[in-house]
């Protein structure tokens, strides 16, 4: 029988304090001070790792916009209901697990995470190799496909795990990146035993520039090179995130009172998964292990919501910080690695949330094929320069003397542009 969550967190804090006293100031003590310092800097707007833009964005998401009520539908669609039902079932399964079962699951994940994770060091610019921008662009395309087909987050994380590992093992040319990424998405759906999507539809929607046969053949190559086992879901950062979410919920339940209600109302698993998908689309997060990435994200999320409702000296905040320290030690995450991951995550989210404040300046460009261009009605001949009308007494007299019967039709004088396209009824 394992002790309670709060008891283990208190024991970890006491052990950390004893170590700091013996060593004269250890890295763990520095980490705790650094963590609280970074949280305060992010809160009060000082440039730090916490990222003020992330906190502002979270606050904006909580504020209801009354102007958009008319644009929203009164009732969710059937697909929305099915999606909410799946999310509720997943949360119910996590809630039903005890803390001891969750810790055992973490141990199983920790033994397998290196198999599904790799560190990518891609160049920024290259004509022969896939660049970091090419990889991130493919990740956003797969995220759009996941949203389009209303698939769970596991498909996106499994697909990007295949993409990153295949890029690490094989020399992929940039022209093959689109086909390879969509093929990984297609393979991930089969790996998770979900309802298959026809390859023709994926090729059409993604516009990857290959045929359905090419997509199936590429998926087979990826599966053989990486040894993909159907029916076995890979261990990704979203797997850790769900366990951390359940553990912090158990902690909030042990603290009790208003803190448990606060956790249930403000900390949503779906929002955390959306943030994690954004982080997945940046290649810099591959330098962080999935366990560290998920822990840093939920800590940053908790930091904002707790500090908006509780003061620094409150016992609830103390319990949370002690438990964060315990989880860091339990997962054997070094202090410097945790601090580095905190900076990377907050920087990516701050940059992403700041994009909606910048005006979109790119002009809309229509790309047409030569065949479509030949049948279009030319519009450049419709814009003509009209002569300037002189305003004077003579013009007024001339206009007054002209009778209405002497007016000449403009169609007889003007050279109106005509379309070279022959109407269909005249071609017969």
Automatic annotation (TrEMBL):
Transmembrane segments: none annotated. Residues 140-224 form the Cyclin-like domain. The keyword NADP does not apply. InterPro entries: Cyclin, Cyclin-like_dom, Cyclin-like_sf, Cyclin_N. Keywords: Cyclin. Gene3D superfamilies: Cyclin-like (1.10.472.10). It comes from the Eukaryota. The keyword rRNA processing does not apply. Residues 66-87 are annotated as: Disordered. Residues 66-79 have a biased composition (Polar residues). PANTHER family: CYCLINS (PTHR10177). Belongs to the cyclin family. This is Putative cyclin b. It comes from Haematobia irritans.
């Amino acid at each position: 029988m394992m002790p309670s969550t709060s008891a283990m967190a208190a024991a970890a804090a006491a052990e950390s304090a004893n170590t700091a006293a013996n060593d004269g100031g250890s890295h763990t003590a520095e980490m705790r001070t650094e963590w609280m310092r970074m949280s305060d800097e992010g809160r009060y707007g000082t440039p730090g790792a916490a990222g003020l833009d992330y906190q502002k964005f979270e606050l904006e998401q909580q504020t209801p916009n009354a102007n958009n009520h008319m644009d929203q539908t009164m009732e969710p669609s059937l697909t929305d209901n099915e999606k909410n039902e799946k999310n509720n079932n997943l949360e119910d399964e996590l809630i039903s697990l005890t803390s001891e079962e969750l810790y055992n699951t973490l141990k199983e994940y920790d033994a397998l995470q290196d198999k599904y994770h790799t560190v990518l060091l891609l160049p920024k610019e290259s004509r022969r190799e896939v660049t970091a921008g090419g990889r991130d662009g493919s990740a956003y395309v797969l995220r759009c496909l996941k949203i389009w087909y209303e698939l769970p987050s596991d498909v996106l994380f499994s697909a990007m795990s295949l993409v990153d590992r295949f890029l690490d093992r094989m020399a992929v040319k940039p022209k093959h990146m689109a086909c390879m990424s969509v093929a990984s998405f297609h393979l991930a759906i089969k790996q998770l035993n979900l309802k298959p999507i026809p390859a023709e539809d994926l090729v059409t929607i993604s516009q990857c520039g290959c045929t359905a046969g090419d997509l199936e053949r590429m998926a087979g190559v990826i599966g053989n090179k990486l040894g993909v086992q159907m029916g076995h879901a890979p261990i990704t950062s979203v797997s850790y995130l769900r366990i951390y979410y359940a553990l912090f919920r158990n902690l909030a339940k042990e603290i009790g009172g208003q803190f448990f209600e606060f956790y249930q109302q403000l900390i949503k698993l779906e929002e955390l998964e959306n943030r994690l998908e954004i982080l997945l689309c940046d290649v810099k997060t591959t330098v962080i292990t999935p366990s560290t990435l998920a822990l840093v994200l939920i800590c940053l999320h908790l930091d904002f919501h707790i500090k908006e409702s509780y003061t620094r000296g409150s016992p609830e905040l103390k319990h949370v910080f002690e438990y964060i320290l315990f989880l860091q030690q339990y997962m054997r995450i070094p202090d410097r690695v945790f601090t580095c991951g905190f900076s990377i995550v907050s920087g990516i989210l701050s940059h992403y949330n700041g994009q909606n404040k910048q005006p979109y300046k790119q002009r809309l460009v229509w790309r047409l094929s030569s065949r479509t261009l030949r049948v279009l009605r030319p519009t450049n001949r419709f814009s003509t320069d009209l002569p300037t009308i002189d305003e004077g007494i003579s013009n007024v007299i001339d206009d007054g003397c002209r009778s209405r019967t002497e007016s000449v039709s403009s169609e007889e004088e003007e050279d109106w542009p005509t379309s070279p396209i022959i109407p269909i009824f005249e071609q017969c």
